[in-house]
Design a protein that fits this description.
mainly alpha, 14 helices, 72% helix, globular
């Protein structure tokens, strides 16, 4: 005798216990999660700056002692030149892009990028902030990356052109004999450049995710470079802004030297800055701090500056260009992150 089978439709429904309100968690909206992440990341620049200051505290203390007796009017002039450096950087960034960017937010992004640039090496901090800003302005990723590459290429080329212009204008007045590297230094630098290029080529060849978008990025970069150089305004912004940036930075150094009584012609100080930053500026240190400082002291001493004054001038230069704008730049960076401008 077969067992009795009840059809499923005839079975009574099994009551399920109602979940308690405490066990039900509403899903967190994506905007709320993004807002929490932004608020969590906003104090990160300040924490990095605090750690950076603690690590280099002896330099900060020595700088304050040396600058206590400096001429305040020359220091004010140096601060003004440094502010104009951010304007020149903004103009150069605009010149590297066909689209027009809002001037105010662009200037604020470069001020914030300056703080990030002194935390990460090789300009990565400034490029990361600028890339986020460009993407937030609706610039496609290939074009934004191409503008960063063009900006990074134009700045060292402009610096070398300025050095050649100084040498052509006053070949006998500038003491470049002791500044020229010897054969061993040139061989070491050439080996380092060759190894870096070889490593980059090997990385791009061996990693498919890097190799696949490379042709498109190169095509975008070349197309945008040709387009920008057909517009005289963009050419003036790109090359003129880059040249103005280096000259203004050198004027900061010369103004600090004048405040400490450094009796050197400004032409020599400006050329010393260009030569020193060109010689060791490619060393991947945050903001160039360290290698560029040592090269600046050596170059100023070659031009006849006493070692004490040369050291004090370089320390004051770092206070004006790094430490004074560091906290305001970090605050601007945090504010732009909170307002979703980055």
């Amino acid at each position: 005798m077969s067992p009795l089978r009840i059809p499923p439709a005839a079975l009574p429904p099994v009551p399920c216990p109602a979940p308690s309100p405490a066990s039900v968690r509403a899903p967190v909206p994506a905007t709320t999660r993004q807002r929490r992440l932004r608020w969590a990341l906003s104090p990160l620049p300040l924490l990095l700056i605090g750690g950076y200051a603690a690590f280099d505290w002896p330099t900060v203390q020595d700088s304050a002692v040396r600058l206590a007796g400096a001429d305040p009017w020359w220091l004010l002039a140096a601060t003004g030149f440094n502010i104009l450096c951010w304007v020149a950087a903004s103009v150069t960034r605009q010149g590297a892009l066909p689209e027009r960017l809002p001037p105010g937010p662009l200037l604020a992004s470069q001020f914030a990028a300056g703080a990030a640039n002194h935390v990460l090496p090789a300009g990565l901090g400034a490029h990361a902030v600028t890339l986020r800003f460009l993407r937030n302005q609706g610039i496609p990723l290939p074009r934004a990356t191409a503008s960063l590459a063009l900006y990074s290429l134009v700045k060292p080329v402009t610096k070398m052109l300025l050095i050649l212009a100084f040498l052509a204008a006053s070949p006998g007045a500038l003491r470049v004999g002791r500044l020229l590297p010897d054969a061993e230094t040139l061989a070491l630098a050439g080996t380092g450049i060759a190894c870096a290029l070889g490593a980059a080529a090997l990385l791009v060849t061996a990693v498919p995710p890097l190799r696949r978008p490379l042709p498109g990025c190169l095509n975008t970069a070349l197309t945008d470079a040709r387009l920008l150089h057909t517009r005289p305004v963009r050419v003036l912004q790109l090359w003129g802004g880059a040249a103005a940036f280096w000259l203004l930075q050198a004027c900061v150094l010369a103004s600090v030297g004048s405040s400490l009584g450094l009796h050197l012609p400004w032409v020599h100080v400006i050329f010393a800055y260009l030569a020193a930053s060109a010689a060791v500026g490619a060393v991947p240190a945050p903001g160039g701090i360290g290698p560029v400082d040592a090269a600046l002291v050596f170059t100023l001493a070659v031009f006849g500056a006493p070692m004490v004054l040369a050291t004090g001038t370089v320390i004051g230069f770092r206070v004006i260009t790094v430490w004074l704008p560091l906290l305001p730049g970090a605050l601007v960076l945090s504010g732009m992150v909170r307002r979703r401008m980055l």
